[in-house]
Specification:
It is a single chain. By secondary structure, this protein is mostly helical. The chain contains 14 helices and 11 strands. The longest helix has 21 residues. The relative contact order is 0.13. The N terminus is likely disordered.
């Protein structure tokens, strides 16, 4: 989200030798008749030609096991922030008493999936804790979710992308719990987003309410994340919002889509750049989640409006992003980036939304499933926590401690469980 420096580690390797195990896994899955997937087991090394009984992958069980590790190791047990989660495990000396909003938001995305899968994860109580991040004071006289909490009230900066991701979780909470209070909270997020829009550089949202239009400040920008996630939230909220709000919600989503498409899309491959600064300079770094938000928004705008160009544009970005981001790395023939898994699961979720309209997405999702299977086997420590690098290379121990890295794994496992049609 622009708050950390990220780097990809790319390697070229012999294709056939690395690809063969993945092909075996994919072929084995074709013989399964239930929600599980058989894992390839080689011929017995003693040479008797017999094989072991194939293990079966039950993705929802893996998701719940991962949640158990998170709950056991990250959850705050006492004090004003009891029931919240720490930013890191082990907790760092400079860490706050509860995680920043972004990691908590990521955790709620995974918890919502577990609740859908049939697990009792105290879903409603966890969703209600979002309100401890709410704050009414800020650079604009509109309420919004702050970046941190003391367990009672929100503090820190208020970011437009953070608020939209909270909004997506509140839409999901309404769908699962049916409480109209979540509609009211979504409506307030819409007002906060509107307060971030202006006509500088032709429209769109800034990244942070306190960093609007400050040329020379690298954090003063209109980014793909803020605008893309606002569209994803708005087009999700549109389906459930009161009729009186629909026109305004859709109008805002379309304005943000048009601006991002015209200002941050690389016309060479239809993959989205990171941001446009207050000085008008475009940061051309590309991240998976930014393209993912635009793919999902394009699909949803197509379904709402029936305008074919949204779907055509979503397909072009889906293909361009897969070709840009997926390649050989660390002895793996074909995989998604080996860091920032929270970014990757977002584009995969957008592929799942697009798949009914674009058959290529099935292959894109299967590549991710192979990554996730590898991560389960090789990319975890002895406590059941995931490394950032899913190939098993523990290259950044400090980032491995982050709650966000565990959120990404939980959301990934839960997403694939639902994609495979599993239930507890």
């Amino acid at each position: 989200m622009g708050r950390n420096a990220y780097f990809y580690h790319m390697f070229k390797n012999p294709l056939f030798r690395a690809l063969l195990p993945i092909l075996c896994i994919m072929c084995a899955s074709c013989s399964c008749e239930d929600n599980s997937k058989e894992v390839y087991v080689p011929v017995d090394p003693n040479g008797n030609g017999q094989t072991e009984t194939p293990a079966k992958v039950v993705w929802h069980e893996r998701a719940y096991e991962t949640f158990g590790a998170i709950d056991r190791l990250y959850k705050v047990g006492s004090g004003a922030t009891a029931g919240f989660y720490n930013e890191n495990y082990p907790k760092g000396s400079g860490d706050l008493s509860a995680s920043y909003l972004w990691p908590y938001d990521g955790l709620m995305s995974g918890v919502a999936l577990l609740n859908r899968l049939g697990y009792d994860v105290d879903y409603k109580a966890k969703i209600e804790r979002f309100q401890a991040y709410w704050r009414t004071s800020g650079a604009v006289a509109v309420g919004g979710y702050g970046s941190q909490t003391n367990g009672t009230a929100g503090g820190g900066e208020r970011f437009y992308d953070d608020n939209s991701i909270v909004g997506l979780n509140l839409v999901e909470a309404y769908r699962q719990l049916g409480d109209p209070v979540y509609l009211d909270r979504c409506a307030r997020i819409v007002q906060f987003l509107l307060s971030g829009e202006d006509d500088v550089m032709g429209g769109a949202l800034w990244w942070c309410e306190g960093l609007k239009n400050k040329p020379g400040n690298g954090d003063s920008n209109k980014p793909a994340c803020a605008n893309g996630y606002a569209q994803w939230f708005l087009t999700s909220y549109y389906d459930i919002c009161p009729e009186s709000e629909k026109a305004g919600v859709l109008s805002l989503a379309k304005r943000l889509y048009e601006w991002e498409y015209n200002n941050l899309r690389d016309p060479e491959d239809n993959v989205y750049w990171n941001s446009k600064g207050a000085d008008g300079v475009v940061n051309t770094t590309k991240w998976t989640y930014n393209s993912g938000a635009m793919i999902a928004s394009g699909v949803r705008l197509y379904k709402i409006t029936g305008e074919e160009h949204y779907l055509t544009e979503a397909k072009a970005t889906a293909d361009g992003a897969y070709n840009y981001f997926v390649r050989g790395r660390n002895g793996i023939a074909l995989c998604y980036p080996l860091n920032d898994p929270w970014f990757t699961i977002k584009i995969v979720r957008s592929y799942i939304e697009l798949e009914p309209y674009h058959s290529n997405c099935s292959r894109y999702i299967e590549t991710f499933i192979a990554d996730l299977e590898r991560a389960w086997k090789d990319g975890r420590n002895d406590r059941g926590l995931f490394y950032e690098d899913w190939s098993g290379k523990n290259i950044n121990p400090e980032r491995d401690k982050s709650l966000l890295m565990q959120d990404a794994a939980l959301e990934s496992l839960g997403t694939i469980a639902l994609y495979k049609g599993e239930k507890k």
